[in-house]
């Protein structure tokens, strides 16, 4: 049994210590906003926050999150009013949309640490989160918009 705080609420999940957090979220807790992309920590579709740090949940094991705070895309804002979520819509970022929860979570980590990042800082920070549709310019524009509204 692994006990942790998920989106501000205490939860306990029966899982083996090496179970990826991704599968705990999707299969055990039934939060499906966090996506399976590659399973190897290469694409970023599964990005969540653990203690405020963006981590790839496919590579984060149950044993690593015991007693910690985990935030998923569902916990970023209860009503989708986070500046990034609003900017994502305003900039029409999603094309297929599959990578977007991971992209938003990675961007949220950046804005929490650096509320007014430069374009170069955005590009550097977001490196490693892949968008197969190639909406990178819209992702950057959305982060820039959110940084002005936050």
Architecture overview:
By secondary structure, this protein is α+β, with helices and mostly antiparallel strands. The protein has 7 helices and 5 strands, in the order E-E-H-E-E-H-E-H-H-H-H-H. Strands 2-1-5-3-4 form a 5-stranded mixed β-sheet, with helices on both faces. Helix 4 packs across helix 7. The longest helix is centred in the C-terminal third of the chain and has 14 residues. The radius of gyration is 15 Å and the shape is globular. The N and C termini lie far apart (38 Å).
The average pLDDT value, as a whole number, equals: 96
Give the structural class.
Answer: alpha+beta
Radius of gyration: 15 Å
Which bin fits the share of residues in helices?
40-55%
Biggest sheet: strands, sense, closure?
5 strands, mixed
Instruction: Say how many strands there are.
Output: 5
Which sequence of strands runs across the widest sheet? 2-1-5-3-4
Secondary-structure element pattern, one letter each: EEHEEHEHHHHH
Shape summary:
globular
């Amino acid at each position: 049994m692994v006990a942790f705080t998920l989106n501000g609420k205490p939860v306990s999940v029966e899982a083996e210590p090496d179970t990826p957090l991704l599968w705990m979220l999707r299969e055990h807790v039934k939060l499906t906003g966090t996506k399976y992309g590659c399973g190897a920590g290469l694409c970023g579709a599964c990005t969540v926050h653990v203690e405020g740090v963006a981590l790839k949940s496919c590579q984060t094991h149950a044993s690593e999150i015991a007693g910690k705070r985990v935030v998923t895309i569902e916990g970023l804002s209860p009503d989708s009013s986070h500046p990034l979520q609003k900017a994502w819509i305003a900039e029409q970022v999603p094309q297929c949309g599959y990578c977007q929860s991971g992209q938003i979570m990675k961007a949220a980590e950046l804005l929490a640490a650096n509320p007014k990042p430069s374009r170069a800082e955005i590009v550097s920070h977001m490196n490693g989160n892949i968008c197969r549709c190639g909406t990178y310019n819209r992702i950057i524009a959305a982060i820039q918009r959110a940084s002005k509204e936050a």
